[in-house]
Structure formats: structure tokens, C-alpha cells
Amino acid sequence: MSTLRGRLFAGVAAAVLVSVLVSLAVGEVLVRAAAHRSAENALARQAQLFAERASLGLPGRGRLLAVRAGGQRLVRLSLTQAQQQLPASAAQALAADGSAKGTASLQGAVRTFAAQAVGDGTVVVASRPATGFGGDFSPFFAAFLIAAAVGAALAAIIAFGLARAIARPVRRVADASRALAGGRSPTRIPAEGSGELRALAGAFNQMADELRQARESERSFLLSVSHELKTPLTSIRGYAEALEDGALAAAEAGPVIEREAGRLERLVADLLALARLEEHTFPVATGPIDLCEVAAEAVRRAERPARELGLEVHLQATGPAPAIGDADRVLQAVSNLVENAMRVTPAHGTVSVRVTPGRIEVSDDGPGIAAEDLPRAFERFYLHTRAGARDGDGPQVGSGLGLAIVKQLTEAMGGTAEVTSALGTGSTFAVKLPGA
Fold it and tell me: Which domain holds residue 292?
């Protein structure tokens, strides 16, 4: 009985068996009590009938009136004899009401009796053995056993069907889980059965869908990383071979190799940072900061690469902009936004950094983002792949992970990352932090 179906069946069967046994025990007690009351009432009627006839000249006191099958006896006693042979409670009832009934030891045996007073000072006592109800109960007990056996059989059949019905969705979930563990995509589990089973099926289907999406994202991520690694490695290898063959001078090949090595270094650093952020192991120390100071430092760092790309980076701030955050992490996020803006802005374009209390916005003159791409703007490599590289217009900027890092960093500080854009109008990315 190690399976759920077996345990359910065993549990229901045990419950049915206990219920049947309890019902039989209670039924026996109730039927015996009813039979006892019925016997007392029958004896009382017989005693009353013979008491009425005693007044018409039946045999005298102390005489045995009748003996019937089953050990039933009818005797006529004097009131004194009756009070001596019957229990005190019965004697009191005779004196008060003229009748009594119960169970007592009469003539060395336990008997059920009924006594009825006659008007001449005598008492008619009808009695029968108190242990003589077994025969009366036997038909009832046999009927109970038959009914219990039929009920138990029906209950076992129902329990078996119920156990199968309950276990079927669980088995489906188990099979689907094994399929997921084996790397296969299971079919959706139909939501059927009780509310709990439907909830289980729905939760598993949701988990399977999310896992499927995660696997697709992982494959896409690996493809993107492979591409991003391959491009600089190809350049480094090509220039290194040209340098080795003497086709290029060191002064010409060196800057290209250095630039592509820097791309690889940034990509690896961003991958490590993103992994730490997603595992919540990235240290973030929040406190009061001035976003103007952070934005000014980000603009200062971007001035040299902006000049190399033929771009201008402007800072727009009217005064202190207090917020709650980690200055180093905010600087990292804003630098990534500026780097992303520089990547998509054409030559002679402008990147604007605007600062207000609790908010930093970075705008570009790029091609903009389509409405269907906005919900995925902060996904790893998504916009980087969609926009393409600036290979023909100066050195490529960015690793494709900057926006994902911005989102993770901002949320780690209790803020939000936002984007507004339309095709042909450029884009504005914003970091919003709690106010100081």
C-alpha cells in the first residue's frame, strides 16, 4: 500500500469497516433494549389480563396459573409474597400504582417480570428468563450482518473508484514532472476533479509554462552570449594573425586588440554582476544620496567615449536631487543607461541626462523602440540584438546586459526602471528611487 491509490482505498475501507462494526454494536444494544422493553410490555399485558380474570374465580393464591414456551410463567401470589420475592422498588410500585415490571432474581434465576395487583389483595406475576432474548435478536442480527456485508462491498467498490479518480490527476502530475526533469515538454494536465486537484493541475501547468519560457530564455541567452563572445574573439584572432604575418603594424593592430579585449572584459564583468544580482548576493547599502552628484560623475566618465563616437552628453539639473539609494550602484545603473544611449545614438547626436529629486532620466536621439518591444526592453540582449551593432560607425559600445543590470540594481534599492519610446523619436530610460 505504498501508492496514494492504495492508501486511499485502505483508508476508506478501514473507515467503512469501523463504521460497520460500530453500527452492529450499537444496533445490537438498541435492538436488545427494544426487545427487552417489548418483553416487559408483553408480560405486563399478560399479567393485567390474568389479573382481570382472577376476579372471576381463577385458582387461589400461590397457584401457578400457566407455563408457556420459552420459560414464561404466570403465578398468583399474595401481596406479602410478592413484596418478599420482588425487588423493593417493584414492591413500592405495586403499593403505589398497582403494577410493576423489571428484572430480578426469582426462584434462583434472573427473570424479567411484570406484576399486576388484583383487587382481592393478590398479585399476578408474569415472568420469563432475562437471558432468553437471544432468539428474539438472532433474526435482527443476521439481517444486520447481511446488510453490513452488502454495504461494505458497495463501499469497497466506491472507495476503489474514488481512489483511482483522486490518484489519476496526481499520477499525471508525477508523469509530467518526470518528463520535465528529463528535459521533455509534457502535455498540459487537464483541470478536472475536486477544487484542490484542479488547483494542483493549474499550478503545475503554470510552472511548466514558466519553466519552458525559462529554458527558451536560457537558450536565447546562451546564443546571444556566444555571439557576443565570438565577435571580439574573431577580431582579436584576425588582427593577431595579421600581426604575426607582418600584414599589419603593431601600432595599427594593438588598439583594435585592446578594444576587443575590453569588450570581452566588460561582457564577463556584466555577466558576473547580473548573476550575483539575480541570486541576491550583490551588496547594496542604501542611504541618503544626491542624484545630481551621481549623474555628474556618470557624465564625466562618458565624455571621452562620447567624443570618440562623435556624440555629446549633456547634464540637465537645477539643484540637489535627494533620494534613498546606494551611490555606487546608482552610478553603475546610470552609466549603463548612458552607455546604452550612446550605442543607439547616431554620430553628432546628443545624449541628455536629466535629474530631479528621486529620478534620473537618460534620453537619446536614436531610432526609438517599437511598442511591441517596450515590455521586453530590460531583458538580457533583447534590444542589443534588435538594434544591431555599430560596426560600421565606430567602435561598438555595450555588452547587451546593461539594461538588465539597471533593472536589477534599481529594484534591489527599492526603486523602478522605466522606459518611454516610439519609433523615430528616440528613447528615454529612467531610474526612479525612493525620496529622501
Answer: 284-432
The Cα–Cα gap between 6 and 11 comes to 8
pLDDT beyond 50 at 144 = yes
Q: Residue 122: what residue type?
A: T
- Let me know if residue 184 belongs to a domain: no
Same-domain check for residues 319 and 247: no
Give the domain CATH number at 406.
3.30.565.10
Select, from the ranges 99-108, 342-351, 354-363, the one with the highest average predicted confidence (pLDDT).
Answer: 354-363
Mean pLDDT across the chain, nearest whole number?
78
Identify whether the C-beta of residue 163 lies closer than 8 Å to the C-beta of residue 9.
Answer: yes
- Give every CB contact of residue 229 below 8 A, 6+ residues apart in sequence: 264, 267
- 415 and 293 in a common domain: yes
Among 81, 114, 136, the domain boundary falls at 136
pTM: 0.49
Q: What is the distance, to the nearest Å, from the Cα of residue 24 to the centroid of all Cα atoms in its chain?
A: 41
**107, 132: one domain:** yes
Domain count, the chain: 3
Summarised one tens digit per residue, pLDDT across range 229-257 is 776 788 888 888 888 888 888 888 888 88
Reported as a pLDDT band with limits 50, 70 and 90, residue 137 is low
Q: Is 280 left (phi over 0), alpha (psi -120 to 50) or beta?
A: left
Half-sphere exposure for 253 (CA within 13 Å, toward CB): 16
Determine the 3-state secondary structure of 60 from DSSP: coil
**Is the Cα torsion angle 253, 256, 262, 267 positive or negative in sign?**
negative
Is residue 325 very low, low, confident or very high in pLDDT (cuts 50, 70, 90)?
very high
The answer to whether 284 and 322 are in contact (CB under 8 A) is no
Query: Residue 331: how many CA atoms within 13 Å on its side-chain side?
Result: 14
HSE-CB at 168 with a 13 A cutoff on CA atoms is 13
User: Does residue 261 sit within a domain?
Assistant: yes
pLDDT for the residue 289:
94
Residue 368 makes CB contacts below 8 A (sequence gap 6+) with 421, 422, 423, 424, 425, 426, 427
Same domain for 118 and 63: yes
Q: Which of 227, 259, 282 is the last residue of a domain?
A: 282
